[in-house]
Amino acid sequence: MARVKLFEHSAKQIVLNNLGFNYEGIRISKITELPKVLSTLPPKQQYVLKVDEGIKGRFKMGLVAVGIKKERLANQVKKFFRQGYGNILLEKFVPHSPLEEKYLSIQRTREGLVAYVSDKGGVDIEKEKNNIQSYLLDTEGIKSAARVLKLKSIYLKQLCEIFNNNHFTFLEINPLLIKNGQPILLDLAVQVDSAGSYFLAEDSWKEKDIVRDYSKTPEEKAVRELNDRSQASFSLSILNKDGAIFLLLSGGGASLVLADEVHNLGLIKKLANYGEYSGNPGEEETYLYTKQILSLVFKSKAKNKVLVIGGGVANFTDVSITFRGIIRALAENLGAVKKHHLKIFVRRGGPGSSKGLAAMEEFLKMNKISGEVYGPNLPLHKIVKIAVKSL
User: Fold this and answer.
1) What pLDDT digit, counting tens, does each position of 51-60 carry?
2) 303: in domain
3) 54, 75, 92 — which closes off a domain?
């Protein structure tokens, strides 16, 4: 058995249609589809745009845009495409309070289907671990789990049937809203048993509904695997394998600002990659992530290369710890860094930043690597301007 992810658009079609609801989400996989899509949308509705490529922690990575008006949709879709993503999900925005958000996941175990439920859901569900209850989904378990969620039992029973009939191995709805006992699936993640494709009904998932990594580079695949096994979030997309500007960024919002600055300077064709790390990763994880960025640097045929290590002012991430991981990776590849004449430019703030920035500055100076190191006093976007001047 191979557990594989479905596109959220495909998963919602299967689940919602089988629950008796009409799913109206739209998948955008080509920029040329935009005019036709926009022409069908009412003007006063607000929307949600998501990168739909099986990526964990999208919201914190800046890959979900909420409450977007129709006139802003085209720019936001184009931004996601510029970052290297090729499947975007468009849905109507459902106004609600964060206090209404709940959590539900179902997993297949040796004992049977088990539900994990909480009346507190959302992007910070990790902080609510003590509030999550588990129930074996027999008759009594379905009733108990439904009571926690204030969900009509019939819907949870139907979810179990959908789970089994479509050879799901994992289902997660977060956030889940309940209106009059009925479920509203704001975000849905589904994994399936690929071997089950031989036994499925016509209206179930097909090969085209599976998120595949066939086109991914070894570095992108390594980062995807790192992301899948970590509590932190990591992403990486290759934009130009022979690019000259490499980004090692932290935080979804800050990473978008920095990537957009490259575009604003008219240097998008020189941008090698986009991605970021967030969620307070440890030293080892940051070291492994940095190694993949450096692998791309060394493969690029660009004559001059710069690495921008950037981010905003962190709230929780310990900058000194992440910088230890970055410095380890640079030190381990010092010969190649010098051979490729890589110049390194840093801008960061947050807990431990003074220690982390001092260590980075000392490393560059001691090893005679060209570059500059700044704290939060430098406006975020200016580190890009400083870096590209050396190309």
Assistant:
1) 998 887 788 7
2) yes
3) 92
